[in-house]
Amino acid sequence: MIWSKYSAPQAFYPLAGRLIPWFATVAVILMVVGLYMGFFVAPTDFQQGESYRIIFVHVPAAWMSMFLYVVMAVWAGVGMGLNARLSFMMAQAIAPTGAMFTFLALLTGAMWGKPTWGAWWVWDARLTSELILLFQYAGVMLLRTSIDDLRRADRSSAVFALVGVVNVPIIYYSVQWWNTLHQGASVSMATGSKMAATMLMAMLIMTIAFWMYSIAVILARVRCVMVERESLSTWDEKAAAMPQAVEAR
Amino acid sequence: MQWGSASEFFAMGGYGLYVWTSFIATALCMVWEVMALWRRRVAARAEQRAALLGGTDETAA
Lengths: 249, 61
Known about the structure:
The complex is a heterodimer.
Chain A: H1 2-6, H2 9-41, H3 55-82, H4 85-117, H5 125-146, H6 150-164, H7 167-177, E1 187-188, E2 192-193, H8 197-230
Antiparallel strand pairs in A: 1-2
Helix pairs in contact in A: 2-8, 3-4, 3-6, 3-8, 4-5, 4-8, 5-6, 5-7
Chain B: H1 6-11, H2 16-53, H3 57-60
């Protein structure tokens, strides 16, 4: 099976290196298309005027912040279950990008809240639970750097990530469960979309663009993590002829 | 197309500050992340090379 072959870091390292340019290229193309649609094709919102255009970065960033947390927790869980090094490395590589998107969701949310609600920040359920998500990402990363023993650092941050996954459905359903100032979902699996077709299209294209961007930077980071952790010269395509290096740790 | 002129586009119906801060902050974060990863990769590979060639702490440092 091809997947078991690539679960070895030595095989995954060159594969990731080959995949990065493809994901990066698709991300750039989709961002250009998405921004063009968002600014030049999508109409002005009848209620919010032009301020609604923040949606084209706000919603993709917010979705990625939650999605990446779940993916990070899944890798952490697989790492715990199978004691697989690559899984822990993937979890480690995802955390900073997830934290960045959480920060951007909060920042762009403040930029949208000020003209719409008259406040940069309110302690409503959606905003508060998203802020907690940022602290969770920080916790996962700090726990890793504060423990010297690599195996213990892996497992501790994995447990922290897994426990925190309960917050993701809380963020997602907060606008239904509580009476929030934050508006409810404009796009839903059950009821479809309440947006104009071109608005929705621009938002979805930006979301896929952010997704492809995330894959590219996470693959680049996991390659850095592999080199830092194990310094295996044989992982590099060009150095394939060099003798097997000893595992550093 | 809803923009009569470039200045109308940048004004964003009076919401220019909020809209452009959002988009520019997002772009800056992404550029910063890519550059930070680039530096991290260069540093990691330099350390790896030093470890392979010298092996001792003196040459690596």
